[in-house]
Amino acid sequence: MVSTRCKMAVKEELKKLGLHYILVDLGEIDIMENISMEQREALNQALLVSGLELMDDKKAVLIEKIKTLIIEMIHHTNEEIKTNFSHFLSKKLDLNYTYLANLFSEVQGTTIEQFIILHKVERIKELIIYDELNITEIAWKMNYSSVAHLSNQFKKVTGLSPSHFKQLKDKRRSPIEEIGNLNPVN
Predict the structure, then answer these.
(1) Which domains does the chain carry?
(2) I need a labelling partner for 155 at 20 to 30 A (CA). Which of 47, 121, 127, 177 fits?
């Protein structure tokens, strides 16, 4: 789950099945009852209709937690990103970053760093479109060492400079759920 809308969909499906939850958060659900296999399958089928799925695989759950933390840090905070992502992820998940990075690369086919870059560029597009901050302020907010660093990374990903992107009439953005996935959800 990567959005508030996803959490609402999960809560609704739990309610329909008569299940009571303690917690529905991005990437995890804590249910009060012990659920039967039939209830579990019914929940899984209902979630699939919404484009969501239950995960049992511990590695898949950990990958989703990594993605969720990155997405929350980049897209759902208004504060400047002033933290080292490797330290942040390692501390939040209480696991060695090398293990997290290797697992992520193995499962996703891309690095955590590349996933972060893709999400930062998408957030930069959003900030450019909002037109509330200039490129220097965006670079500061997104924790780039300089405007040149932001511009170079932005151009590598999009093929455009930030200023050229700003001039486009049709500013293409990607849904958060599809960024960094090998198989985008349609």
Answers:
(1) 1-54 (no CATH), 57-186 (1.10.10.60)
(2) 177
